[in-house]
Amino acid sequence: MKIALGQINPTVGDLAGNVDRMARFTRDAAQAGAHLVIFPELSVCGYPPRDLVEKTSFLERTEQQLARLACETAALPTALICGFARRHDGHTG
Question: Which of 16, 30, 59, 93 is the most exposed place for a label (fewest CB within 10 A)?
């Protein structure tokens, strides 16, 4: 298995730009034969997001961009792992 490390230097709050970089990196890694791409902690929203994670609108936009990333990379033969922030609802499972 070929694994690519997605060291993309995400920007805090640039959700669309970070996802653009991640999608582009994943496409390039797939062309190079990678089976899996692993991105850094909080790569969708950038690190450290600080008080942004307290804003519902920020978390909603993060999930929208995560869904866009999934759609844009779904047809690739490469899986990816990425970090993102979301509100914990207290339930497990």
Answer: 93
Task: Return the number of other C-beta atoms located less than 10 Å from residue 50's C-beta.
Answer: 9
82 φψ region: left (φ > 0), alpha (ψ -120 to 50), beta (else)? beta
> CA separation (Å) from 21 to 7, 11, 66, 90, 93?
10, 10, 13, 32, 31
> Cα 58 vs. chain centroid, distance in angstroms?
14
φ and ψ of 80, to 5 deg: -140, 155
* Residue 59: closest CA among 89, 37, 33, 31: 89
Each residue's pLDDT, cut to its tens digit, for the chain (93 residues) gives: 999 999 999 999 999 999 999 999 999 999 999 999 999 999 999 999 899 988 999 999 999 999 999 999 999 999 999 999 987 766 555
For residue 76, how far is the Cα from the chain centroid? 15
pTM as predicted: 0.89
